[in-house]
């Protein structure tokens, strides 16, 4: 694993982890909230080394810059495109988990010529679900600093299968790198983002990976998304929660690799 920092044309510095052949097929990983690149750390080792896998800490998360503003999904998508520019990548596949899946979709909507394929893990048709509305209410009352038990409880609620304790402890540590004032800002922007009317414009092939015990986005959300887009297929993991990348990392890696081969990317 290689680690680096990139100064983007959007004015921020982002931290990223990279592995594989530097001249290989590029694939960018965008994590969920309140995560970091580490959310994909169980997936990356099982990917083919022919893929140039780049897992980034998005603006405000992990070890990247934490500016007070810039958290609309249009701005986060612009950061992802700026990262491609900074790394000299013309086109890439993009994998997004949860919050990151909506950023990935916005990249493909706004800059379709830069996206070869999308893998959306634990996504939904829209962001405004009852669970997400409840989360918004909860984060608005949080003190500074964020209580570690809150981060631990939230992260635990997103997984259905047992996780290695040391991995989950690190997930919690990464969550708490987000400054407390940004927690409600990020969730507000998530719930304000609505590109459902533009989903029919997506032309990149899409693989959706979803756990049948996902507590955040239901099967109905998956079906609405499938009905809205031209080229998408859904892989369902049984007895799996919102985070297949945590809970079934080898399966996720295999499905991503198979999808990339199938699409010739």
Protein described:
This protein has 265 residues and is α/β, with parallel strands linked by helices. The protein has one domain: Alpha/Beta hydrolase fold, catalytic domain (Rossmann fold, 3-Layer(aba) Sandwich), CATH 3.40.50.1820. It has helices spanning 73-86, 99-110, 130-139, 148-158, 165-175, 182-192, 219-228, 244-247, 249-262, and strands at residues 2-7, 13-19, 25-30, 51-56, 92-97, 115-121, 206-211, 232-237. The radius of gyration is 17 Å and the shape is globular. The two termini are 22 Å apart.
Helix and strand content put the structural class at: alpha/beta
- Identify the CATH class: Alpha Beta
> Quick one: overall form?
globular
Architecture (CATH level 2) name = 3-Layer(aba) Sandwich
Rg over CA atoms: 17 Å
N-to-C series of helices and strands:
EEEEHEHEHHHHEHEHH
Strand order, sheet with most strands: 1-2-4-3-5-6-7-8
Average pLDDT confidence is 96
What's the total number of strands? 8
Distance between the termini: 22 Å
Short description:
With 265 residues, the protein is an alpha/beta fold.
List strands and helices in order, with pairings.
Layout: E1 2-7, E2 13-19, E3 25-30, E4 51-56, H1 73-86, E5 92-97, H2 99-110, E6 115-121, H3 130-139, H4 148-158, H5 165-175, H6 182-192, E7 206-211, H7 219-228, E8 232-237, H8 244-247, H9 249-262
Parallel strand pairs: 3-4, 3-5, 5-6, 6-7, 7-8
Antiparallel strand pairs: 1-2, 2-4
